[in-house]
Structures are given as C-alpha cells and as structure tokens.
Design a protein that fits this description.
321 residues; mainly alpha
C-alpha cells in the first residue's frame, strides 16, 4: 500500500473512532438522531463538491459529461446499505458495550471484505499482506471477546438511567448474561460487520466503475439517506426538534466526522486495493477500545490494550512494501 493511501486510511480511522464514540453517547435516541445526522452531513459537505472535482473523479465521466446515471445508482444502493448499517449499529450500542460492539463489527467487516474483494473484484494481495489481514482481524475479534461480560449481575437489583427510568440496556445485558453468558452486543456486531462488508464492496465498485468523486458520492449517499430515515422517524417526528435542541453539538460533530471518515476511505480505495484498505481502517478499534477502557471504565483494560497491540502489529505488516 502506498504511503498516501496509508495516511488517508489512518486519518479516516481517527475520524471514525471519534464519531462512533459520539454515536454511542446518543444511541438511545435512535432514529431522530440518525435523521438529523444525515441532514447535517449532507448540508455541511455539499459545498465541498465543486472544490473536489464535481461528480466525476476528474470532474466528468468518460463521455465528457457527469455520469449522472452511475452516480444515482451508486449512491442510491449505497444509501440503502448505509441505513441498514446505521440501524444495526445503533441497536448494538443500545444493548452492548461500546468496545464489544465496535470491535466485533470491525473485525467481521474487513474479513468478509477481503474474501469478497478477492472473489469478485479480482484483487490479489501479496502473501505478507494477507498475513497482516489475518492478524488485524484476529486482534479485533480478541477485543470483542475480551469485552464480553463474564459474570452475571446480581438478580433482583434494578438499575436506572440518568433520568431515573429503568435502564433497558442493563436489563438486556443482564438477561443475556444470566442465560448463557452471551453478550447481545456481539450478535449486533456480527450483523453490523456483514453490513460493513456489503457497503464497502459496493462503494469500491461504484467509484471504480463510474469514476465518481468520493466527496460527491458520499454527499449523494448521505442526502438519499434522509428520505429513508424520514420513513422510519415519521412516528417519532415530535421528537425531532427536541433532539436538535438537546443534541446540536453532537450532531454538528457527527455531521463533519462521519462523512469525513468515509470520504478518506473512498479516496484511498481509488488508489489502493480494497482488500488492504478495509483492514487498515480498523486501527480505529484500538482508539475506541482505549477510550472504552480509560473513560467508560470497561472491564479488563490490560487485555484490551494487549489485543490492540496485536491489531497494530497486523497493520504494520500491511504497511510494508
């Protein structure tokens, strides 16, 4: 992988970790937050499109004019896939620990992405790069396993959230742990990983097939998410304005960082194999894991950090020429 692509993906990982921490803090708001997140993302980034080549990667498609058909198809399918991804991710954050859901999703996603990229896109990573992929995925999965609750909580002890209401998050985890020691966040993380692989492969195909600009593609995708989230948010439309008033700071950060993280990844995909880009971006798992251990006081911080070091080692292998 080139130094430019590597730097782009590392920057994307930092932005991605930041917006996921923000999303975790607002996970119980659900659809109203996601609706505003799409609005903020589209509005904040649409003005950047003319500065980054318009719709096409070089401003125009192969025929000398913007490939609007390719743009519409690519962004439309991507919007559907991203909406599905956001729903399962938010569900995971509502029932599981931050680092468990995040690590499981980010480990499953690149593994499936590499398999599909080799099988369908014809990519052929070098043997050492494939070793690096396996090391990265192994470290990420280890972080997810480490984050799984191992002790059942005391029965009959009700927990409450900051507003004094019964905490559904802890209820869900308590029920799961009491039954079989299975964290529901892991199941949500696996589903999220499948969604990650689906949109990553599709977006790489769309950018290469129709020579689209990463910024325009991301803005188009984000804008098309708005009507999809509107359908889901319609029954909760009375919550939209209160959510905006209460969460405008988070929404502003989300609207900048979420598109930025993926724009950087899309740019890297245009100059490097997606089978290598997908695992390297998961250095964000290390950042989220450290944040969860140090700030949220999630359990077994030493083991989390050790697994994170494994991820960094795999990334180092991927960075070698």
């Amino acid at each position: 992988m080139s130094e430019t692509a590597f730097a782009l993906v590392l920057a994307a990982a930092v932005a991605h970790a930041a917006w996921n921490i923000i999303a975790h803090g607002a996970s119980r708001i659900g659809v109203p937050f996601l609706w505003w997140g799409s609005v903020f993302g589209a509005v904040l980034w649409v003005g950047v499109i003319p500065l980054t080549g318009g719709v096409g990667a070089s401003g125009y498609g192969a025929g000398g004019a913007p490939d609007w058909a390719g743009f519409a198809l690519g962004a439309g399918v991507s919007a559907v896939l991203h909406v599905g991804y956001m729903f399962v991710l938010q569900r995971g954050y509502a029932v599981g620990d931050l680092s468990t859901v995040y690590a499981t999703a980010r480990g499953t996603g690149p593994l499936l992405t590499v398999i599909i990229a080799v099988a369908l896109l014809g990519e052929r990573p070098a043997p050492l790069a494939l070793v690096g992929v396996l090391v990265v995925v192994g470290g990420i999965v280890a972080i997810g396993i480490i984050g799984r609750p191992v002790q059942p909580r005391s029965p009959g002890v009700e927990k409450f959230d900051a507003g004094g209401r019964p905490d559904r998050h802890h209820r869900a985890v308590d029920r799961a742990v009491g039954r079989r020691g299975w964290d529901p966040g892991i199941a949500a993380g696996l589903a999220t990983g499948v969604a990650i692989a689906a949109y990553t492969i599709w977006d790489a195909h769309a950018l290469r097939e129709w020579q689209l600009s990463p910024v325009a593609f991301m803005v188009g995708c984000t804008a098309l998410e708005i009507p999809l989230f509107t359908i889901a948010a319609w029954r909760r439309r009375a919550e939209l304005l209160p959510t905006l008033r209460a969460q405008w700071g988070r929404l502003l950060a989300f609207g900048v960082l979420s598109p930025l993280s993926y724009i950087l990844v899309l740019t890297a995909i245009t100059i490097a194999p997606v089978a290598l880009v997908a695992p390297v971006r998961e250095v964000s798992v290390v950042l989220v894991s450290l944040f969860g251990a140090l700030v949220f006081r999630e359990h077994r911080p030493v083991a989390r950090i050790a697994a994170s070091v494994v991820v960094v080692g795999g990334i180092a292998l991927l960075s070698l020429p």
